[in-house]
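Sequence in, structure out.
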Amino acid sequence: MNREDVFEAFGGIDDAYVAESARYVPGNADSAPGRIVHMNKKRWITFLIAAVLMLTLSVTAYAAHAAVSSPKAAEKVAQEQIEVWKELGILSPEVSFDGKANDIREMEEEEGGAAWFGRLFPHSYQVFFYGPHRPGEDGQKYGCSLWVDTMTGKITAANIDAAADEDAIPVREEEIEMPIDPANPDKGMEKSTWYFYDNYDDLFPADMTVDRFCELLAAYWGFSGYTIADTDDEYFYNQHFDAIDGSTLLKDINSDTSENYYLTVFFDGDQKGAPMYIQLHQFPGYVTLTLGTYHAVG
């Protein structure tokens, strides 16, 4: 229940009843020196009913928000909101995070600097569902970290990973030199081959376009529209990216093969006109989707 629900419910009481409950009664003025306003028994009852109703609705509204005011509640809400994303079509139906969250961090409200366009980040919980391993290790398929706003209960940002299936064909491979024993540099280096995949359809439908994805996010966050913008990145990549055509398949904007390392999107009605970001990236054995207010480049 939000503030609008509270006032809408309170608005069901006729204003006249509330006004009359505190009506000035001239005839009684002399009989009770020092009192200007008088309420008869009926008016007092009406006034008290309105007051109790408002208090009850306020407590109910607080309880609704309090449902996201503890780590345990944040974990539950995060799972529920992932299901909402799947129902909306933001994520593929197969996405799931089994078991309990392995880490939950409380994030205090803070004002972002220039790299964040002065955005105010609300109080939230960051919930991690990674289990004992990263995706791709010991058969683990998915992992994620989600930021859940304590007031709305909605996901404001997410990093979601999906491991490639065992029979998946890599799109590229790289030979990397790694320490034989990271704790013992003297043992020297060895070469390892890393395999990269483009299994983005494990995260969202393969035919998802940029426009469709932004439309779904706008609907979820309660915005009326969006603008895919040019990007002047002065803080991370130090490059300019032109706005991409909305009909482009979402999987084709991944930072490994696209000229756009990420997308900058402005949603109509967003605070201060601050941007949100969408980025896809390939890691050895898995792919990741990053979106929302929190982002590596601000």
